[in-house]
Each structure stands twice: as C-alpha cells, then as structure tokens.
Amino acid sequence: MNMHSLILRTAGHFLLPLLLLFSVFLLLRGHDEPGGGFIGGLVAAAAIVLYLFSMDIRSARKVLRVDPRDLLGAGMVLAVVSALPAAFLGQAFFTAQWWEFTAPVFGEIKLSTVLIFDIGVYLVVIGSVLTIMLNLAEAED
Amino acid sequence: MNMSVALPVIIPLLAGALSVMFWRSHFAQRALGVLGTGAMLAATVWLLMETWEHGHVVMEMGSWPAPFGIVLVSDMLAAIMVVLTGIIGFATALYSLSGIGKMSEKFGYYPLLHLLLAGVNGAFLTGDIFNLYVWFEVMLVASFALLILGGERSQMEGAIKYVTLNLLSSMIFLTAIGLTYGLTGTLNMADIGDKLSTVEDTGLITVIAMLYLVAFGVKAAAFPFFFWLPASYHTPKVAVSALFAGLLTKVGVYALFRVFTLIFNQDVDYTHEILLWVAAATMLTGVLGAAAHYEFRRILSFHIISQIGYMIMGLALFTPLALVGGVFYIMHHIIVKANLFLISGITFVMKGTHELKHMGGIYRTNPMLGVLFLIPALSLAGLPPLSGFFAKFIIIRAGIEAEAYWVVAVALVVGLLTLYSMIKIWAEVFWKAQPEGVEGELRDVSSGPMIWMWVPVIMLALMTVAIGLYGEPIYQMAAMSAEQLLDPSQYIEAVLGDSRQ
Fold it and tell me: How far does A51 lie from chain B, in Å, by closest CA?
C-alpha cells in the first residue's frame, strides 16, 4: 500500500496533526455554526486515511493507537447516554441540558448534552469509516 | 413525564452500543443480549400497563412540542406490538445462547440484534411519518447485515432480492411522504390525520393512500409484492429467520393498520375494498406456495404470507369486530410463527438438513419435540382450543357479519390448506420412518448449551396454549385497540392536545 512518493509522505506527516486539529475545530464550532460531529469525524478519518496512503497499514494503526471498533463502541455509548440526563430531571429524553460557567483564561464556557452527543457522533464516524478503510487496506495486502 | 414510552427504544440502543464496546468478549455480548432484551421486555410490559390505564402515552422527544418535534406515541395497538417485540427479542436472545457461532458473534450478531429491535420498537412507537421511514431504514440496515452473517452463496442471493425490493419500497414510501407533506404541510401523523379530514380533493388523497399501500405492502409481503420473502427467509441462521418471521413483516402490517385508520379514513369504500382483494389474494398465493414446497423453512415462509392476508382482511373489513380479529391475529401469529422457526432449528441440529425428504422419525426418538411442534402448528391451522382458532374465528365471524361471503370462503379454504401443510411437515419430519441411508441423530440436543434452544420454544408454546385457554384479557386488549383505531380523534387529541385551538 506504499506509494513511495516523497512529497506525499512529507505532506502526510504535516497534514495529519493539522487535519486532526481542524476536525476538532469543526466539531466544537458545530455548536452554533455550520460544522458538527459528523463532518468533524469525516475530516479526522480522512486525516488517518491520508496517513495510511502515504505510509502503510501498520504505521496507520500505530498512529491511531486504539482499535477503530473501540472508538465506534465508545461513540455509540456516548450518543445514547447523552439522551439520559434529561430523564433524571423529569424531562423528555434528549432534552438538551446546559451548564454555563466562566473559566479564568477561556472566559464564558457553555457545555451541554448536545456536545456529548456530537462527540459521540464524531467517534462513531471515525470508528466506522476507519474500520472499513483499514480492513479494505489489509484485504489488499 | 412518563418515561415508559421511550424505554423500549432506548434500552436496545444502549445494549447495542455497550455490546459494540465489549466486542472482544463473547461472554459480555451474550450476557448483554439476554439482559438487554430482558430489560426491554420488562419495559414493554410496563408500557402496556401504562397504556391500558391511560389510553395513550405520549412523549415529545427533546421537549420540542408536537406537531413540530418528533413524538413517541403509544396507543393500545402500538403497546401490544412492542410487548410482542419484547417477547420475541428475549426468546431469540435465549435461543442464541445455544450457539449462534463464533464467527457471527465476531461480526456483530448481538449489536445488530439490538439495533433491529430498536428499529422495530421505534417504528411501532413513533408518531411522525418521516421518523417511521427512518426506523424502517434502521431495521433494513440491521436486517440486511443479519441476513448475510455467515456469507454463504445462497444468503447473498436471498439478501440481494430482499434489499432491492425493500429499497424500492422505501423510495415509494418517501415519495408518498413528500406528497403528504406537500398536501398538509406537516409530518406528524396525528396532525396529518386532522388536516386531511378538511381537505376537499379526496382524489389526490386516494392516490397517496395507494402509494402507502404499495410501500407498506412490500414490507408486509402482501400480494403481489411478496416474492422477496420466500426468496430470503430460509437462508440465514435459524435464530435470525425466527426474528424476521416474527417481527419484520408485522411492522409493515402495523404501518398499514396505522395509516389506514388514522390518516386515510375518508374514502373507505374505495381504499378498503382494494385492501380486501389484496388480503384474499395474499392468503391464497401464500398457502398455495407452501403446498408446493418441501423445505421446512420455505413452507413456513410461505405461510407467513398467507397469514398476513388474514391480518389485512381484518383491517379491510373495517368493522369493530374485524379490527379486533386483526389485532388478535397479529398477537397469535407472531408468537406461533417465531416458535415454528425455532423448532425448525432444533430439527436442523438433529438432522443437519431442512429438506423434509431427508428427515423423519423424530417422534420416535424425541416425542417431546413432536408435541412442541404440534402446538404451534395446529394453532397456525386454527384448531381449537389453541390461539389460532380464536383469531380465525373472530375474523371469519366479522366477515360474515359484514356480508363479505366470498372472502370468508377464501379464508376457510386457506385454513384447511394450512392444516394440510402442517400435517405434511408433521408426517415427513416427525411421523414417517427414518429414510434409508440417512444418519439417525447427528447431535444430542438435550445437553450442554443446546438446552437453551428448548427454553424459548417451551415458553412460546405455553403462551400459545395460554392465549387459547385464557383468551379473555387478550381479547379485551384487542378490543380496546380496535376501539381506539376506529376513533382516530382520541389519538389526535392525545398527541396534539392543547396545541390546537
């Protein structure tokens, strides 16, 4: 699966952290503006896939550190769990809960169950895309 | 806020997510399978009791008010269907303990099982027509993956037919939703029902109604869209085909019941007349197809089709008694049909084949299994005092009262032919001598993990007998659901309530 291209390899090394950062930016931005867990997850998965193309399957698994199926499972659990807090407060499932507070450096921070759901989606997308891609890459080898 | 209406969807979703998380451990997945479906069964029973008490249980998801947000609504029909899903889900999870195969478990059998159950429950409980489409898709994805677990050639062939036709039906469904939205400007089913009663152009409504009929007819395997079912249901693992046989087509039937009582009740003479013809043709083709086959699960698959006909007949006659019969029939059928498929799994383990010609003599070596087969088989054929007798009796009586004699005649003939089919299986598999050149029993089915195959079979057989002997509470529930179905204003009032002026 090695392309043996110096340009691609060098670019892959530099682009991986940038794309991952960008994916987190998209994830958090999705709170109020265009973006969100789904598109963020796709960008993150694309970053890993680019790395896979420029290097090989083993280093791609190494840079990911965890099995993509674990990401899939954790993401699904997060997404479902984010529906539950509302129930304990006597509201309908999936009703958004907000926590606002001010932190010294960041200023006002708003956290919510919506964000937890979005992180869940983010992980599910990365997990499922990479499960497919890594398996395909391995099947080819 | 009443939580009971959302739990039947949330619990399988959570159990499914957890079993993906613990994908390395077979033990954890099996435990989650039993615990998750068990908890779901408990939640569905709770929902049934709540619905029995209050009539309707409604929850606006995310606190977005109807008709703008998605609502979950449980009326008596939905609650009954959800309980049946709980029963079949739990039975399947227990049955799977006997060994669904390490490969299947590795490729996500349990997460898919939970996802399928969540999809089925979601479809029963949602009060939003587009959300219904989404749950159908969830079901379709999960069922497609379950269908090809194992990856045999015949499975792929069956799965392709299954997916192609179901995708086609989804497209038609989506088109119908688009037209409905264009006409009424809402997707909430109660709101649609409410708005359509004031629309003048009944011709267009009838056209949309026919689109829904085709879309749900494919899902329910009604005539003439049934052919995907016998092409695919005999190919997957037995536990999977029992789950499909019990639940999937009934979601289509449920959707027909829902839209043709709540939404399309303007031109009953026209739409329900067509339904009646569909019902009769479905009954006949199903039972004739079964008569021609000699493969255990194929025969059972064709009988699903013919039984669907009885349910649609209950809807088509559209009298209180007929709807009671239709709902009663669904309850009886789901339990009996899933059980027959599970039994075919036990005989498969014994003989290593589903071909009737190569089986035989099981009654001599294992009379207990013979009796356990006869209970659901004779119930399916409608012999008293089993559950099927009362289900057929109510429907046929409703047919006579509605003076639809020809459809009653069809139903009676089909009942007789069903008996013929069941006796054929009985004679070939259990009664006749072991054919020469065939091994006796390949595997012992009364020890080790194989015990788990018997538990759900006995459980479901006892239910069949219980419905027959103590049918009164079941009849009361069916009667209440029929009364609600015939008076859609109750449903509309429960969902929209004070948001209407």
Answer: 26
DSSP assignment, residue B433? P
Chain centroid, CA B288 distance in Å:
21
> How far is A86 from B349, CA to CA, in rounded Å?
48
Q: Which residues in chain B are closer than 8 Å to A68, comparing Cβ atoms?
A: none
The residue of chain B nearest to residue A96, with distances taken between CA atoms, is B62
* pLDDT tens string B74-124: 999 999 999 999 999 999 999 998 877 777 777 889 999 999 999 999 999
Residue B81's CB: how many other CB atoms inside 10 A? 28
Beta carbons of B285 and B225 less than 8 angstroms apart: no
Token pair recorded at residue A111: 């956290």
Beta carbons of B14 and A69 less than 8 Å apart: no
CB B398 within 8 A of CB B319: yes
**Nearest C-alpha neighbor of B489 from the set B500, B479, B478:** B500
What is residue A49's three-state secondary structure? helix
SS3 B130: helix
Q: Backbone phi, then psi, for B354, in 5-degree steps? A: -105, 0
Average of pLDDT values for B178-198?
90
Point out the residue among A80, A94, A96 whose CB comes nearest to the CB of B17.
Answer: A80
Residue B67, pLDDT score: 84
Residue B236, preceding peptide bond in cis (omega within 30° of 0)? no
Whose CA is closest to B328, among B220, B485, B219, B120? B485
Residue B185 has what DSSP assignment? S
Ranges of each domain in chain B: 267-489
When CB atoms are compared, the residue of B3, B17, B21 closest to A87 is B3
Q: Give the chain A residue nearest B15 (alpha carbons).
A: A77
Where would I find the beta strands (DSSP E) of B299-445? none
Percent residues over pLDDT 70 in chain A: 96
A38-47, B91-100, B205-214, B407-416: least confidently modelled range: B91-100
Amino acid at B26: H
What pLDDT is recorded for position B438?
65
Lowest mean pLDDT among B149-163, B239-253, B364-378, B481-495: B149-163
Lowest-pLDDT choice from A121-125, B375-379, B427-431 = B427-431
Q: Is A95 in Cβ contact with B6 (below 8 Å)?
A: no
Q: Which residues contact B446 (CB under 8 A, 6 or more apart)?
A: B454
Hey, are the CB atoms on A73 and B17 less than 8 Å from each other? yes
What is the mean predicted confidence (pLDDT) over A62-90? Answer: 89
Burial bucket for residue A66 (CB in 10 Å: 0-12, 13-18, 19+): exposed
Tell me the DSSP string of A99-126.
Answer: EEEEETTTEEEEEEHHHHHHHHHHHHHH
Best of B20, B60, B138, B495 to substitute, by most chain A Cβ atoms within 10 angstroms, is B20
Q: What is the dihedral of CA B290, B295, B296, B301, to 10 degrees?
A: -40
Q: How far is B306 from chain A (nearest CA, A)?
A: 39
Residue of B232, B20, B89, B227 whose CA lies nearest to B147: B232
Contact (CB<8Å) A70/B18:
no
Exposed, middle or buried by CB within 10 Å (0-12, 13-18, 19+), for A136?
Answer: exposed
| ipTM of predicted assembly, 2 dp | 0.87
